[in-house]
Amino acid sequence: KGFTISSVATNADQSVPTTIVAYTSGHEQAALAVAKIIDVDRGSVQAADVNTTVAADADVVVTVGSDKLG
């Protein structure tokens, strides 16, 4: 079993310093697995806020920060 990338979009806020892995209710373990795969500290895994939940129809949302550039 794996993960499916359902969409890719450009975040309106281009000044996000740290990559965030957000999850909707009941999907924290999946978010932790994604964070491990993309080498993101588990401290950057958090419950999705309302804006993230509305913007992305997904269980886990990754917002790539400037820490992953290059």
Summed up, what is this model?
The chain has helices spanning 28-37, 50-55, and strands spanning 20-23, 45-47, 60-63. It is α+β, with helices and mostly antiparallel strands. Strand 1 (20-23), helix 1 (28-37) and strand 2 (45-47) form a beta-alpha-beta unit.
Task: Please provide a written account of the structure.
Strand 1, helix 1 and strand 2 form a beta-alpha-beta unit. By secondary structure, the chain is α+β, with helices and mostly antiparallel strands. Strands 2-1-3 form a 3-stranded mixed beta sheet, with helices on one face. It contains 2 helices and 3 strands, in the order βαβαβ.
Give the DSSP E fraction (strand runs of 2 or more residues): 15-25%
- Total DSSP helices: 2
Major sheet: 3 strands, mixed
The secondary-structure element order is EHEHE
- How far is the N terminus from the C terminus? 29 Å
Average pLDDT, rounded to a whole number, is 92
Layout of helices and strands:
Layout: E1 20-23, H1 28-37, E2 45-47, H2 50-55, E3 60-63
Parallel strand pairs: 1-2
Antiparallel strand pairs: 1-3
List keywords for this structure.
70 residues, alpha+beta, three-stranded mixed beta sheet, globular, 2 helices, 3 strands
